[in-house]
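Predict the 3D structure for this chain.
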Amino acid sequence: MIVNNIEITATSNDYKGICEIYNKKCFVDGAVFGDILNIEIYKETSKFYCAKILKIIKKSPFREENVN
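Done. Predicted structure below.
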């Protein structure tokens, strides 16, 4: 399932972004507090979703880019 324009409102202890979709928490791999994203849900349980980023619509000011 694809969900567009989701705002990440928190970060989990294992560094995944957290948002709420359909009254369930959704843990997004690689997301940062404040990101606005299009995501794809790849796992659903009775209590939460897991998702991956499809597109970053607006980067969080807390997002750090790798500089080499």
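The radius of gyration is 11 Å.
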